[in-house]
Design brief:
The N and C termini lie close together (11 Å). By secondary structure, the protein is mainly α. The chain is 67% helix and 0% strand. It has 7 helices and no strands. Helix 3 runs parallel beside helix 7 and helix 5 packs across helix 7.
Length: 142
Amino acid sequence: MIVPVAIRPLLRQAIEERRRVGSALDDEPGGPAAVVSAEIAPAQAGPEDDEEKLRRFMVVAWPAAGRTPHDENARRVFLALLARLEAPALRDDLRFLDAWNNGFEAMLTWPAEIRGRGEARAAIRTYVRILDHHARRLAGSS
């Protein structure tokens, strides 16, 4: 990860704060975590590259999930597209981490009973793992 030395402490602090919030949400009562399955993923014509995955999440799913948090279909598409950004979010391009940050912020607006269910709870756990990964990388680049 290429992060200017001057902002590494700020980024580390932001990641740690998000990890605390995400971990606290994961500790909320709720159903068991579930892995987002391919059967709920929207149909697609062929393999998408990471840029297209990011575009679809940020342009289609993220705004819809924020506008209509009680729309189960919008949430399912949102969570499925967000899950597809896990691998790219573990790499150097911070736009994918930012997409997960945006996704997490959207989930914070959802009622706790929705946020605590299977796929949403699994997404929060994934987000915390992604943050852990970046925290370790930043610590190693000090």
